[in-house]
Specification:
This protein is α/β, with parallel strands linked by helices. 49% of the residues are buried.
Length: 642
């Protein structure tokens, strides 16, 4: 498990890089992907009646789902959590630790079980690309030892159920249930919530909740490309997050896809999902077509099975080890001096080019738009050796140089989420039964009844798998993310208010127009490559605010809300630290920059986005600020109203 030798291999000195030529190539490749329709090029499955069958839950067992009316005695609850993924679990856990009884919590989710994205995504080859010793939360509290360095999807889902049982949350969940509308009642200081449970006989129930937490995730709603002819296709077709083992063979715990042996399969998309599942399909399909617009940047992963003795001696070495490991992980995302010791020692921690997404704590980071050109040059100087090495890795693995050239990523690290796989993904393009359908950034022309068409060439296929991702995590409001209406004080619609003025939160968790409603970022908060760390940080912060507000209310009904002055100050602090994040503008289109739409925003909109965005100095600096706020103890900027 010593990765020293591997590191030496993967970090060869890269010489003779002509940075100006590379950046010119970046611009040309970016231009291939630019479109006027931005995110509208995709079909939002959840809002389109014609395509809603693509999001049908293949895992739900209605008979095991508790009836909504039984779960809300007297049509009310104390704390309602929207989302039963890891974020919702963490908000529940931290509230329980702060004194809320499990019986006083209700967690709703449209899914049939816990796990969020790990509930739905069960495709073959699925694993987390963040080290499990970091990614899986509460390892110290549960004593759980992950089975692999990068946990498989089934393990993550099973661990979510373990946490739910340990903290007695399992009996608080109301599955197959969606909130349609939430409206604040100023007189009773409660939220009125319209719920619908979609079982064989749907049931609508209006409930009241003293507090609501919106923790409905960032990868919730699958999307399809807006390719003509999807509904005309006659073969098997599905989205990767709704995998149909009934037509492929195998099971989530068994990637024996034996029903593909006589099938021609097309995978549309080459992001992190496709990188993981394509090798599994290639091993079984008669022929596999991988449809690519922009190639993934695929670095090594170095997977291994966890040795429990090694884990105890080298990882879980002392109390607080997981927090310290996370801190060390985050400290590698900077343009300044890196930590001497690399506890995680993976390719994430050698991807300094991710700082425009994670935020840069370097005091030399830009303070204004005028500083951006020099800053981007600094980022490219740091990043070019890594991306050059990754392109060289394609040459080392792919035997056909023409195909290899099409698989090389010509964009900076920060423009797309990096991918990691131990050779298998690139190696499939050496197989006779695999064809790369490179569309030069355009995508397919159309889909016919029995084939896909690219550049007017037809490829007959028996099955189409859309590995095309989800609604962008950084667009819309918490209301849109949950597909519901939120009405706050004075009849104010969250959708209208945020679209007009942006969020008005303190620390990203509570908006001054929406009392007793706790949010989970990332707006006006921070982010990390390990998104569950963000969720947990905000869960702890929310639990503190709720517990302290209860203490001050002394048993009386109350509302807790941020003050207008505090949110204005916080918005300005976000704005003053926003410049390091602006490097994403000018990137190859992806969900990071709303498919290039950020480039076209008006200056007035850019100012609003900067006030609404992420803490630009990184998550550890963000945590320092909110932890100092808690230690100060006065709840400055928070008002408790009786």
């Amino acid at each position: 498990m010593d990765s020293t030798s591997a590191e030496a291999v993967h970090h060869k000195s890269v010489t003779d890089i002509n940075s100006s030529e590379v950046e010119e190539r970046y611009g040309k490749e970016r231009a291939k992907r630019l479109r006027d329709d931005g995110v509208d090029q995709f079909i939002d499955i959840s809002s389109s009646e014609k395509y809603q069958h693509f999001q049908k839950d293949p895992w739900a067992e209605e008979s095991s789902v508790k009836d909504i009316r039984e779960m809300f005695p007297n049509n009310r609850c104390h704390v309602l959590i929207v989302g039963a993924g890891w974020g919702g679990l963490l908000y529940a856990v931290r509230m329980i630790e702060a004194g809320v009884k499990p019986d006083d919590i209700r967690i709703i989710d449209t899914a049939g079980g816990f796990g969020g994205t790990w509930y739905y995504n069960r495709y073959p080859g699925l694993s987390c690309d963040i080290e499990s010793y970091l990614y899986l939360p509460l390892l110290e509290e549960t004593g759980y030892i992950p089975k692999y360095r990068y946990a498989h999807g089934e393990e993550i889902r099973e661990y979510a159920n373990l946490v739910a049982e340990k903290y007695k949350i399992a009996d608080s969940a109301v599955f197959l249930t969606k909130a349609e509308k939430m409206e604040w009642d100023e007189l009773s200081k409660e939220w009125q919530v319209e719920l619908i449970q979609r079982k064989a006989e749907p049931q609508v129930l209006n409930v009241r909740a003293s507090f609501v937490a919106m923790v409905n995730g960032v990868l919730s709603w699958p999307k399809l490309p807006g390719i003509p002819g999807i509904l005309d296709y006659h073969g098997d077709v599905f989205h990767s997050s709704r995998w149909k083992y009934s037509v492929t063979g195998g099971a989530p715990e068994d990637p024996t896809l034996d029903k593909l042996q006589n099938k021609r399969v097309a995978i549309i998309g080459t992001g992190a999902t496709a990188v993981q599942l394509a090798p599994c399909v290639a091993r079984w399909a008669k022929h596999l077509y991988v449809v690519q617009r922009t190639p993934a940047a695929v670095d090594v992963r170095e997977q291994w099975k966890t040795d429990p003795d090694w884990f105890q001696k080298e990882v879980a070495t002392s109390q607080g080890w997981q927090r310290e490991r996370s801190r060390n992980f985050h400290q590698h995302f900077t343009t300044a001096q890196l930590p001497t010791l690399n506890l995680v020692n993976d390719e994430w921690t050698r991807a300094q080019g991710m700082v425009p997404i994670a935020g840069n704590p370097d005091p030399r980071s830009p303070k204004s738009p005028e500083d951006l050109p020099a800053y981007i040059k600094l980022l490219n100087d740091i990043d070019l050796p890594r991306q050059t090495r990754i392109r060289a890795r394609v040459d080392d693995i792919v035997t056909d140089p023409i195909i290899g050239e099409k698989l090389k990523p010509w964009y900076p690290t920060w423009c797309k989420r990096p991918c990691f796989h131990d050779d298998e993904y690139l190696e499939i393009f050496n197989r006779k039964n695999v064809t790369l359908v490179d569309t030069g950034g355009k995508g397919l022309d159309r889909i016919a009844g029995d084939s896909i068409i690219a550049d007017d060439k037809s490829y007959p296929v028996d099955m189409i798998i859309f590995a095309t991702g989800f609604r962008p995590p950084y667009g819309g409001t918490p209301a849109e993310k949950a597909n519901l209406k939120i009405i706050g004080r004075n009849g104010l619609s969250m959708t209208d208010e945020w679209n007009r003025n942006g969020p008005s939160t303190l620390h990203g968790i509570i908006d001054c127009n929406f009392p007793n409603l706790f949010l989970s970022g990332p707006w006006q908060a921070s982010t990390s490559g390990n998104f569950l760390f963000n969720d947990d940080a905000l869960a702890k912060h929310t639990a503190y605010v709720l517990a302290e507000a209860k203490r001050r209310a002394d048993g009386k009904a109350f509302s807790v809300v941020s003050t207008p002055a505090a949110v204005e100050d916080w918005s300005m602090q976000i704005l003053m630290r926003s410049a390091p994040m602006a490097a994403i503008i000018g990137c190859t289109p992806s969900y990071f920059n709303l498919e290039g739409a950020l480039d076209r925003t008006l200056p007035s909109e850019q100012m609003k986005m900067a006030r609404s965005g992420l803490w630009g100095h990184g998550i550890e600096d963000f945590l320092k600020h909110i932890e100092e706020w808690r230690e100060e103890g006065t709840m400055k900027g928070i008002k408790v109203e009786l």
